[in-house]
Design a protein that fits this description.
Length: 158
């Protein structure tokens, strides 16, 4: 009977041969107790150091969260102070315009304008001082937790 292509293909496939891996025997030796003790101490110290690092990282995260919160609140309050200052200056300018509309002479316009400029110059000095003090307070309040944390860390390390 003639062979078909399908039957010859199944006959021509080689059968897998199982190859045994060479057997290497590991020599049996006992770890000296001194070495074992040294390794155990090393592992214990590594765990202790990991816990210290983990604790320090958690403390640093807490400090950064507090600092960010303080900074954002401080910036918001500073922004409100700027808005308040701008509103006061705008109100003063509208008051001046109102007074100028009622002026009856050029001399009165000059007098009103001069008085306004003196008053606004004094107000600007007071507002600048107030904003500067507020900005300094925000900066101090923001930096204080970081400063305390660094100081505490160095005291622990020493």
């Amino acid at each position: 009977m003639p062979e078909t292509a399908a039957s010859s293909a199944t006959k021509s496939k080689p059968k897998p041969v199982a190859v045994a891996a060479p057997a290497f025997e590991m020599p049996k030796f006992e770890v000296p107790p001194v070495f074992r003790e040294f390794a155990e101490k090393g592992i214990a110290q590594a765990k202790e150091n990991y816990e210290k690092c983990k604790s320090a990282a958690e403390q640093a995260t807490d400090v950064l969260e507090d600092t960010y919160s303080t900074a954002s609140k401080g910036c918001a309050s500073y922004g409100l102070k700027v808005i308040e200052t701008t509103r006061a200056n705008t109100d003063a300018t509208f008051d001046l315009m109102s007074e100028l509309m009622g002026a009856k002479s050029y001399a009165e316009v000059v007098e009103l304008t001069s008085a306004f400029m003196r008053k606004q110059f004094d107000a600007m000095i007071a507002q600048t001082k107030e904003l500067s003090e507020h900005a300094q307070k925000v900066a101090t309040d923001t930096v204080e937790p970081i400063k305390e944390s660094i100081s505490s860390t160095f005291n622990k390390a020493a």
